[in-house]
Queue: 4 jobs
Job 1
Amino acid sequence: MALEFVYAQPVKIYFGEGAFAKLTTVLDECGVKRCVIACGRHFAPTAEAMKEKDSRIAAVFGGVEQNPQLSGVIETTRLARETGADAVIGIGGGSAIDTAKFAAAIALGDAEAIAYYHGEKPFPEKRLTIIAVPTTAGTGSEVTQVSVVSHGSEKRTINNPAFMPKAAIVDPVLSSTVPPRTTMNTGLDAMAHALEGYWSKNHQPISDLMAIEAVRTILENLEKAYRDGSDMQARANMAYASLLGGLSFALPKTAGCHACSYPLSEDYHLPHGEACAFTLDSFVRINADERLELLCRRVGLSGTEELAGRIAELKKLAGLRSRLGDLGEVDLDKLAHDCAVHGLMNNNPVRMDEKALRAMFEKLA
Ligand code: NAD
């Protein structure tokens, strides 16, 4: 078959240990005059200290939670509107970056956040500049046009060019304080991005290359970063793999494993990475084909069975929930139904209907 694809990647990426110190230069380059920062509690004191030093930082919203709520978007948007900001900086894991993206996309609009969330209003044509600074090695949100935000128990992924950051600063040093379990959750999220980008029905050759390198790097470094968070070489390699993971799914989008992660987070409250990891080894077996065998050989594995086994071992090492019994009382009919109807399931190379998903989950009983 003739080779044909479209590839684009608009984010300017600054990568390296200590790269965070370039924030001032990045603000200059992006022409930022006034900005707000969205971050979680972990980073809030640093952000407040930055605000004291740089008069361009007008306000800080330091209350972003895991699986971020729309209320955090509303607060960040209010600060951006009140201060007349021209940029929003998201510093943190995917939760903080996605909050910043959403606020930047709607700040110049005239409607409430809920109207954009429910798709009742189109996103405004003009938006604020987005600068993303990841502090976990997992989501790749710094290079995607996706924002994942919850409203109550509903968790919604919105895909819109308005969410694309202008610049990303990936400094592995910022991830050195991530606790071991979150290191494993987020690292397996990056693995899921690479594998799903690779097996997505919309995969393409440049994304494939980055996916293979991401999987190889994660297999070599995730356990090291989990066991010793101060191992900066492992942290740096994981930050790089997470970035590659983001780039490898940004265009092809994710598939079955991510589709299943939504009900697992909404109804059983698993953090995003743990929810992806829950079915990742199952999907490696389900989606096993010649292409996936090729990926396995390129990363030094004997085949898909070994890949599935390595993922299961990493989950076990960190004590991640991996059996239905770990979730409490499970409504299997609802779980299989909700996974089957999620839009991302259409990207999975093997058709997975409710019956097939039920059978997959029954094997995890
Ligand atoms: P997170 O942002 O929820 O952070 C997890 C926890 O780690 C939080 O308590 C946070 O405060 C803490 N934390 C973050 N950095 C830290 C650090 N350096 N030291 C100590 N603690 C730190 O987790 P995440 O996995 O990075 O992001 C998950 C969210 O991102 C989910 O909502 C998920 O759906 C979304 N997501 C978005 C995309 C995208 O493309 N936009 C892709 C994948 C996932």
Job 2
Amino acid sequence: MNTIKHTPAMGWNSWNTFSEKIDEELLRSSADAIVSLGLRDAGYEYVVIDDCWSLKRRGSKGDLVADPAKFPSGMKALADYIHGKGLKFGIYSCAGTRTCADYPASFEHEFQDAETFASWGVDYLKYDYCFKPAGIPGNVLYRRMNAALRNCGRPILFSACNWGADNVYEWIRTTGAHSFRSTGDIQDNWTSVEKLFKSQIGKEPYTGAYCHSDLDMLIVGMKGRSENSWIALGGCTDEEYRTHFSLWAIYGSPLMIGCDIRNMSDATKETLMNKDVIAINQDAECRGAYCVPQWNNPEQAMTMVKPLSDGGYALCMVNFGDAPSQVSVQFWDIGLTSSQHKGLSLYDCWSHEDIGAFADGYADTIAPHACRLFRGKVVDI
Ligand code: GAL
């Protein structure tokens, strides 16, 4: 029985901040923080260990072995701890012969590894693409792991990660994956947010229920802190993190926190736990957001529009540029005509207030790297 929810996954992943420096204490204390800070109740449920958790060689029976220096109590005990907190446990492997950080990967071990994961109590598998045999198509490798996961006796969310390579959009849904990384690796700076997000504009038809386009783990709250100097590069302002979170949410990306949740500022908590933004991300129909470019500044200013299951829309007016820009959305671009007396009443998801009903459109001047995120309800005007 498939008990995996059809909306984007939410949780925390160790990679952005900790990379190779992971151990069971980090995982346990992060799970504790998810619960005590209210993140679990806000919807974050998966606690995921990324690369570098195993020994460099498989065991005598060909099994993956958790590194006893990092995980002395073993993976089953860690999973039990995480489950005891009302959370779910995720792990990482790769479709190639080695993982990206050069640990054993699952090529030709798919069924064996899925059984190992199930015996540990794993609920989520991130599945990477490094060291992929050139002669075997990616869709075959993801279908293989899907077959293994679907038959291991435990529901395991299958999170594919091939960075948008090999036209993944065209085949990923057929593999059974629940999400697919559509972008390369994120870095903790605004340039990276802009580059990753813009690379997915126009590709919103490919995301949807049970197979979400994954724009990569969130950098919200990292503030340049990471064991990985390539990711740490720069940091963002709180405003930039809000824009990043708004964009990932409206696009329907999984929301996997990447900062150290044990040391979050109030601003970071407020961003990550904004219920109105999360509700847009978790909307039951899971439609992707399309882009309405600003007519006089189309490269930098735009409104992303996501049709919602209640008949309304989420609208994210964003300015990627370095100078303030006008952003205006004409409602006829989203299907509403004032000649037929239809307009939108707008609720601001960051100030948490209704700002009124509008007939033909809405315009504002948006600060650099900022956005406004609305929930719009169709009204008679
Ligand atoms: C990359 C992947 C990252 C992280 C890393 C681990 O390929 O995109 O998210 O998992 O491998 O080595």
Job 3
Amino acid sequence: MPDLRGLGVSPGRTAGPVLLMAAAPALPPPGPPLSRRAGTAAVAAALSAVAAELDRRAGRAGGEARDILEAQAMMAADPTLLQAAEEHVVAGMDAAHALDTAFAEHRAALVAAGGYFAERAADLDDLRNRAVAAALGMPMPGVPDPGHPFVLVAEDLSPADTAGLSADVLALVTEKGGPTSHTAILAKSRGLPAVVACAGALALEEGTLVSVDGSTGEVRAGLDGPAAEEVRRLAEAERAELAHSSGPGRTADGHPVKLLLNIGSAADLAARAEGVGLFRTELLFLDRRSAPAFDEQVAAYAEVFAAVPGAIVRTLDAGTDKPLPFLDLPAEQNPALGIRGLRVDRLRQEVLDTQLAAVVEAARATGAEPSVMAPMVSTPREAADFAGRARAAGIRRVGVMIEVPAAALLAEAILAEVDFLSIGTNDLGQYTFAADRQHPALADLLDPWQPALLRLVEMCAAAGLAAGKTVGVCGEAAGDPRLAPVLVGLGVTSLSMSAVCVPAVRTALAGHTLEECRTLAKAALRPDNPGPR
Ligand code: PEP
Ligand code: MG
């Protein structure tokens, strides 16, 4: 098998055996009717295989994951489901179609019952896929859990899949996905090397040894055991060397640039940095079916504040590829352009109020003084409303993210309402270029070296300088060691990134004076700048 190349989106190298994440099975055309005995035995075997697999996984999981898996195993063992599938077999269907129909009926009944039952309907889709795969003799869909380290290869992964990965996953390789997709971001936050948009990855054979380079995007296949061992040894040595890097962010001539961390929970606080610039609170609750209680939120935030008292908390950024099922938001034609981020407040005001109160309580309990900022702010009016709510709740330092071009264009007016700006270049790139950040074929438009994006960054930084307020970057661009000096040259005052990116960015800044950064920025702003792609 030839070597493959995709987009390296989370740095680091490793090697290990490939395991494929099977896709949901498509139903083949109906097969011939089965005898009553063979048919009922086939549907019963499929359902009990699903229940047994989920029970096995529950036994290996902990906490809430175990409860969810156990509940799903019980649903698979529900006798009414088995009975319905048996009836369809008796009426002439093959096992896969009988199961598919039984699940569809069960799902419709739950939706019709409403409330708590309707919330459970989505759980049935995963069970349906597993049961149909078992009936067709195909591998079970979902993330494999073999009990040994492996490289996970999939067509695509959702943020919820990625957040729930076991420690056995060495690296991720996907055929789909963009450079700033949330899956890539989660991989980075977990220090997992990841390559996305890797054509041909699904043709890799299960068990074959591959090496993965999450910086260059290279996936080499067909390694033998000693070669894989050597890749892991070298990668470990590199990691140890980088871990020695420490100290504040400074250009060669001493201009300070705060190096901050992007985190999804206290577990991501691994690197030496100068604070937390983006606490993506929604990542705490991705798999939740009921709203996180006030006390639970207080505990999660307090864990971060106890370690980093000045952390910047981003209020929930739900929507598009990070749906929070408990919000029960209506389905939309264009979710990325719809109710997401701060816009959820238009429908569900209590969500933001509860979160702000929980932040204040966690701060009180830990003696911390965190800041808060809102995602997806589009107008000065929205910024003013958010700042008013946050200050009324008792938070002193309030900012907003600049992720929508409209907000960048009015950065000065927005800064009149808040204390700081944090530029989310991932979404700012997506919305400036009308290019889905998860689209593997649009990586060139999503490249943060695009001069149009850099011009918006410059406008925000200039507004910050004029107002004497800080303007940081917290999108993936901040963690790119080649781009970091350019961003500093444009005038940003802090860079916030995943822990794995901090040492290389620190070294890159130390290699340039502020004047050199400005020269680089000037060149990067030229409309014909192709960037070092
Ligand atoms: C961004 O959009 O750049 C950002 C930091 O927010 P997220 O990636 O979580 O959407
Ligand atoms: Mg964003």
Job 4
Amino acid sequence: MKFPKDFIWGSATSAYQVEGGVENSDWSIDFSTCQSCDHYNRYEEDFTLLEELNQNAYRFSLEWSRIEPQKSCINELEIEHYRKVLQSLKSRNIKTMVTLHHFTTPYWIKWSDPSAVFYFSRFAKVVFKEYADLVDYWVVINEPLVYASQSYYKGIWTPQKKSLFSFLKVVNNQISACRKVYQDFHCLKQDVQVGIAKNNVFFEPYKSLLDKFSASMARYFWNDYFLNKVKNHLDFIGLNYYFHSKIKFPFSVQNENRIVSDIGWEIYPQGIYHVLKELKKYNLPIFITENGLADEKDRHRKEFIENHLYWVGKAIKQGVDVRGYFHWSLMDNFEWEKGFKPRFGLVEIDYRTLERRIRSSAYYYAKVCGSNQL
Ligand code: FCB
């Protein structure tokens, strides 16, 4: 199975999960990551691994709380840091995809407050003016609904709110922020590429007509609602695919879970095909911005990659405009409320010595990246 010419092959990380030493974010108070993978200092070494693994693209995020630790104070040293990171990638001919909001914010931001739109878009403009020539693709917000529900509805992530009203306010502010950043960037530069990374689920009805109704409701609210609101302000859609849900009326999940990852997430490769086909209606280029699994012993990762890519290839053959694939993640990292236990990396991290060890599945993926085929 051949992939289109110029297909982009890479892997993804986010600042808070890999950098270590973040002090002024809203997460730093509850879940300090200490040194984490120390990617902040070891990015050159990590980019050498990317090259060794034949990847030609890297998705990562800028830690807003480093760049603007106090309201309206820009830390020029951090601006220079990320410039060096971007320059290093460019010098290695690696395409850059930069996320502006990947779950963490400076501690002084609250997304339920409309002022977040102002501060976030101001931050976005600051970094755009610095890095416009070094960034190939901008991802404005990562998984907006996951963030809004974990932080403001379920109360799991900081600021641990449990309120439907706050959740809705956050979503509304995220929609405004996406539109504003898209407009600002396009005013500043014509040929810029701006998108979001959306976590979409393959909702499958369990059996009955009522189950079918529930599945389509779930699809409407979780997969389509946000995209419908921002679709005229996107140059591409980023898809993060992890989940399949077999829905029984009203909203219970009846998965068979035949194969699961270390953290119990079902491995269901054909779901990515269905979700991609659903996205076709937006008529926008699509990147798989995340797809991966927790698998410490590397038992399922090779097959996971192979099978998911098979279904991506099939969607492409049927006319879905997929332009690239980013595996989550380049290296083991901090998995939010689950801590350091889940191992999502193509590269294993020894957290005592910070030594990097390439897992064998990563060599398989490298072959795919290098040959542009399965
Ligand atoms: C996604 C997140 C990413 C990572 C993976 C496992 O929802 O975007 O940061 O935690 O899940």
